[in-house]
Design brief:
By secondary structure, the protein is an all-alpha fold. The chain contains 6 helices and no strands. The chain starts with a helix and ends in a 16-residue tail after the last helix.
Length: about 170
């Protein structure tokens, strides 16, 4: 038997799809209900590419790579098809940094390398190493180097390790 009161308390949008309104910390970890968390990025925002890069950089600099990943994810999902690999790769790097800062060395290193590979694939396919001023080669080097340090057990502070998207 279903408890109607319990289902009313669940985070759902008007169509009944799950929506997680639970507060989160700067690394996106869920906090107990009633706790003050870090404001989340609004989902599904279509930004201009330059705005995406600037907003994501500000979040990375603030030690909030999980939130930067959400900005990149919006660009990946709403941008032109030919740019999806670029934005997905940047989102993977932000999630890799998130996992590394949370202490998940295996997941962090894997996602950092996957994101670096996606950016290299995009650059190879497009012949452009600085779309929107983004330093793809430099970010790739940063990601591979950080992945090696993460695997060696070095602790990661997300704010201190934030990459410079533009050099």
């Amino acid at each position: 038997m279903t408890n109607a009161g319990a289902s009313d308390a669940r985070d759902r949008d008007p169509e009944g799809r799950a929506r997680n309104a639970r507060p989160r910390d700067g690394l996106g970890r869920p906090l107990p209900y009633g706790t003050e968390g870090v404001p989340r990025q609004p989902e599904g925002v279509a930004r201009q590419p330059q705005q995406t890069v600037a907003e994501a950089q500000a979040l990375l600099d603030a030690g909030k790579p999980f939130h930067a990943h959400e900005v990149f994810e919006d660009a990946w999902k709403s941008g032109p098809e030919e740019e999806r690999t670029l934005w997905r790769g940047l989102a993977q790097l932000a999630v890799g940094l998130t996992h590394a800062a949370r202490g998940n060395a295996v997941g962090g290193a894997r996602l950092l390398r996957r994101g670096a590979g996606a950016l290299a694939d995009w650059e190879a396919g497009q012949g452009e190493d600085r779309p929107y001023g983004i330093d793809l080669a430099g970010i790739g080097r940063w990601a591979r180097e950080l992945a090696g340090r993460v695997e060696s057990g070095e602790p990661v502070d997300a704010g201190d390790e934030a990459p410079r998207l533009r050099s």
